[in-house]
Design a protein that fits this description.
about 160 residues; alpha/beta
Length: about 160
């Protein structure tokens, strides 16, 4: 399974790079059914100006269209960053049985870091979670993105102060 997980996580990373090209936070996701990618998504919150335009949410919507059902019972979601509460909830609601992610999210991770909504026995569905697949590569995408963003903000601030 490790080999498949890495292969599909690389596809999620490609989606994250697409987000980054648009100036979005580089998070990407793919959904796999019977060994084939049936849906892709990347972060589009800035592009769409929608708080729910997360990579997972976009991929879930596309996968449901592909399957012709809201149930994604035989699918696996691969995502570069640990799902947030909204996305973890959507994965439970969509009945996704397996979730694989790259980097942990210490601020919003709900697949094991802050809590694990995907494995809470109070819900009528649970998902197996596999964490840390290509973790370093996934984490570096985010770290580099935010370092560059801070650098640009600092430069902008400096230019503004030079005017006065």
């Amino acid at each position: 399974m490790e080999e498949h997980d890495q292969r599909f996580m690389k596809e999620a990373i490609n989606e994250a790079l697409r987000a980054q090209e648009k100036g979005e936070v580089p998070i990407g996701a793919v959904i796999v059914f019977k060994g084939e990618i049936i849906a892709r998504g990347h972060n589009e919150r800035e592009t769409r100006q929608r708080s729910d335009a997360h990579a997972e949410m976009i991929a879930i919507e596309k996968a449901c269209e592909y399957m012709g059902s809201w149930r994604l019972e035989d699918c696996t979601l691969y995502v570069t960053l640990e799902p947030c509460p909204m996305c973890a909830g959507a994965l439970v609601q969509a009945r996704v049985p397996r979730v694989v992610f790259g980097a942990v999210d210490p601020k919003a991770g709900c697949a094991g870091t802050l809590m694990n909504l995907l494995d809470d026995s109070r819900f009528n569905h649970r998902a197996d979670v596999r964490a840390g697949i290509l973790e370093e590569e996934c984490g570096l995408l985010l770290t580099s993105f935010f370092q560059e963003l801070r650098k640009k903000k600092k430069e902008k601030k400096r230019q503004k102060s030079d005017l006065f």
